[in-house]
Amino acid sequence: MKNAFSEIFGGVKSLLTGMRITIGQFFKPTVTVHYPHQTLPIPPRFRGHIELVRDEAGKSLCYVCKLCEKACPSDCITVEGIKPEGAKRKTVTQYRLDFTKCSLCGSCVEACRDGAIQYSREYNLASLNKDEFVMDLFKRLEAQRLEDEKAGRIPPMAEAPKPEPAQAEPAKPAEPAKAAATQPAPAAAPTQPANVEVK
Amino acid sequence: MTETLTRFFTQEPIRLGAFLLGIMAFVGLNAAYLVWVERKGAGRFQRRPGPTEAGPAGLLQPIADALKLLSKQLLVPAGVDRTLFRLAPVLMMSPALISLAVIPWGESLAARNINLGLLMIFAFGSINVMAIMLGGWASRNKYAVISAARVVSQNIAYEIPMLLVVITVIMVSGTMNLNEIVAKQAGAFWNWNLLNLKANPLMPVTFLIFYICMLAETNRAPFDMAEAESELVAGAFTEYSSMGFGVFFMAEYANILLGCALATVLFLGGWLSPIGILPGVVWFLLKMYFLVFSVVWIRWTFPRTQFYGLLNLSWKILIPISLFTLILTSAMMKLFKVV
Predict the structure, then answer these.
(1) How many separate helices (H) and strands (E) can be counted in chain A?
(2) For residue B294, what pLDDT is reported?
(3) Residue A86 — left, alpha, or beta (φ > 0 → left; ψ -120 to 50 → alpha)?
(4) Is B252 exposed, middle or buried (0-12, 13-18, 19+ CB in 10 A)?
(5) In chain B, which residue's Cα lies nearest the Cα of A30?
(6) Contact criterion met (CB below 8 Å) for B181 and B118
């Protein structure tokens, strides 16, 4: 009898404690992030898909050494470039990343001697179309550059891959020939996929 | 002009029609917006905002939900008992609507002021158990049948203490007319049945028992055995789609509304105001919605009980206590002639 009553009172007390706690939570502010309207800051070492690093003028640092292409264990990077007339180094014209195969291992970023690629902070990568994940990072970079130019963040450039005339003099004579031999018409590359990044 | 209008509206058929329309609109609106309250409440109890996208503060969410349900196909699976399957949601909704006709919303605001109002509510109240059972049985689905069996044993178990408690109230008030039950509680708020300690020192316990039984009768958490989604998919409603499900859903809220309105009338002094300001209807609605809120509060606080726990609670705790309060009340009445 005594046990039964203490059980009932104990039970009622614990129920009331529970209700007191929940009503306390009811009046506290919400703690969730309202996702499409708010986002959390992305941690600085976030690994998105790779992207080309831009210099102050908005150009790529890449000079098509293809170390990243060789370092990639899944074979998802294809880099093409040309050596412009009189330039010291080659410039990238196509940087194809097949993100469907990429495992974000980061070997390409480690392999790059010039720090020309880095992880992007892009995480909204949903699509109904698989082709959208085969992206051209050079096109993406150009689009970003044009956007920055329009917004006035960087000075406008006359033409995209044209080198400055000052750099034309010390060019080595052997390189253009080599470039012409190794680069079988970059324009004829497979269809340029749409870029996921462009919004 | 106003006199003609008054005379027009006090004609009996017109008055009844207006009341029925009003009750149906009230129940529909409440069923829709209690879903919103429930979801907002659930959100706040879990420290999240709840629905926010459809309309300001998600206020259009119930309308969006209703449109979505209406645009879906009303699927009747092969092998079900068609008639019963389609009839069950209606049978669940209509008793709640009918019962609200005798609820006195204000001093002279009841569709029907009949002497056996309380009896009528309980007579119709049992029908919704049958509706869930029919829905479950007609579905030809193992989950639905298990749910139907559970609902019946649960509701029988909880009908008993509820009626015993109601008998206590009837003994104290001496009438089954809901208007008179409220009128008997007039005066300061300690005359309400909830605090009517001189009639029965256990009156608050009686209210608690009524409230627990109301939760169990309306199949609300923590007694939602009929719709135990973690065990029984959606219980008796598993095979229902579109507005078939929608009506069940609305009926659940209509029943909560009825239960809370009844608790307000029986224990919280109905339209009576504790401090003497504002019209009676406002107080009635305030009390009723406070109870409705506490139903939501309880749902998002306690986990679902196990089935034997649920039956134990009724047969081993609630029924003995309610029987004891019944005997205590009659003893008090005989010995002290308090009522």
Answers:
(1) 5, 5
(2) 92
(3) left
(4) buried
(5) B47
(6) yes
Q: Is A32 on the interface with B (CB under 8 A)?
A: yes
Mapped onto helix, strand or coil, the DSSP state of residue A60 is strand
Q: Is B313 left (phi over 0), alpha (psi -120 to 50) or beta?
A: alpha
Whole-number pLDDT of residue B83:
86
Helices B82-99 and B117-125: crossing angle in degrees, nearest 10, is 160
CA distances from B247 to B28, B67, B218 (A): 10, 13, 14
Helix (H, G, I), strand (E, B) or coil at A36: coil
* CA atoms of B83 and B333, how far apart (whole Å): 50
- What global pTM score does this model have? 0.75
Determine contact, residues B226/B219, Cβ cutoff 8 Å.
yes
- Judge whether A3 is closer than 8 Å to chain B, CB to CB: no
- What residue in A sits closest to B51 (Cα-Cα)? A34
Asked if A26's CB is within 8 angstroms of B45's CB, the reply is: yes
The answer to whether residues B29 and B23 touch, using CB atoms and an 8 Å cutoff, is: no
Which of A8, A19, A28 is closest, CB to CB, to B301?
A: A19
What is the rounded distance in angstroms from the CA atom of residue A107 to the CA atom of residue A93?
A: 22
Q: Are strands A117-119 and A50-52 parallel, antiparallel or unpaired?
A: antiparallel
Angle (deg, nearest 10), helices B12-45 and B82-99 = 100
Q: Which residues of chain B neighbour A15 with C-beta distances below 8 Å?
A: 302
A158 three-class SS: coil
User: How many angstroms separate the CA of residue B322 from the nearest CA in chain A?
Assistant: 14
Residue A145's pLDDT band (boundaries 50, 70, 90)?
confident
Tens of pLDDT along A62-119? 888 888 888 999 889 888 888 888 878 888 888 888 888 888 888 988 888 888 888 8
ipTM for the predicted complex comes to: 0.72
- Greater confidence (A147 vs A161) lies with A147
Helix (H), strand (E) counts: chain B: 14, 0
Could you report the average pLDDT of every consecutive run of 10 residues in chain B (339 residues)?
A: 74 80 87 89 88 85 88 84 86 87 81 84 86 86 86 88 90 85 79 75 87 87 76 77 84 90 88 78 88 91 84 88 89 75
